[in-house]
Amino acid sequence: MKLKTPCEVSHKTLTFDVEEIEPILQGYPMDMKPWPGAMVTLKDGREMYIREAKLEEAPLMLTYLEKVMKVEHDFYDIVGARVYSEVLGWYRKRLKDPYTLVGMIDGEWVGFANGRLMNKDINISLHTMALARGGRIGAVMYYAKAYYGFEILGNKEWWATYESYNGWMRWGVGMAQPSYPWPDVQHELGGARVYYVTKEYWDQAVKTYVQQMIGADLVFDVPDKLIKANEIMRLPEEVVV
């Protein structure tokens, strides 16, 4: 769009260095405490290590998510597409204040949980996935990121929504999550209804509910041997969602 200048100007053309534009497009990140890394013993006895994903692992993760996008049951196609865009947004620095947690067993990527901070008070839950069957990996990953939000980041509210019936039943109904009036308040995932948990509700009921599903607590004193065994990510051989 062009408009006639209201006065004479010395330079008709202005040139920008893209590094001057990037701070405007990327924005300024909040000071987020890192996820410290934790281990948990799954229902089937395996030990899973939950750590932050490394930015350099994003391209590898994207190759797996391309396959998930082709799964046409239980909404995995749209979940795969949205998680792909979220991982890419994190990788290209086009997602505000994201966090990406991965569950690892003997170097294999078996669990995923991500979200972002709207502000210091509100944590936007994005997606949780189990990449391997058994052990209630999905429940563990969901608990880990909720724990991260409430217990480490000090968030006051947790906003979620659900694309699948299973997710809605397990977390929305299972946690008896209330929802904000719709369409007045909308989740960024397609403008869907916002289900929320407050810090008070987390302390009173939700934290116990998820611990009951897991059957074990997160352990933050992780042996060096387990950390080293899961430093390098290996993709699952097949998609089993």
Largest sheet, described in full?
7 strands, mixed
The CATH architecture of the domain at 36-160 and 214-229 can be given as 3-Layer(aba) Sandwich
Unreliable segments of 5+ consecutive residues: none
Please, how many helices?
7
Radius of gyration: 20 Å
Overall body shape: globular
**Within the CATH hierarchy, at the fold level, what is the topology of the domain at 36-160 and 214-229?**
Aminopeptidase
CATH homologous superfamily of the domain at 36-160 and 214-229? Gcn5-related N-acetyltransferase (GNAT)
**Numbering strands along the chain, what is their spatial order in the largest sheet?**
1-2-3-4-5-6-7
Strand-and-helix sequence, N→C? Answer: HEEHHEEEHEHEHH
By CATH reckoning, the class of the domain at 36-160 and 214-229 would read: Alpha Beta
Through-space gap between termini: 48 Å
Can you count the beta strands? 7
Report the portion of residues in β strands.
Answer: 15-25%
Helix content: 25-40%
Mean pLDDT, nearest integer? 95
Q: Structural class given helices, strands, pairing?
A: alpha+beta
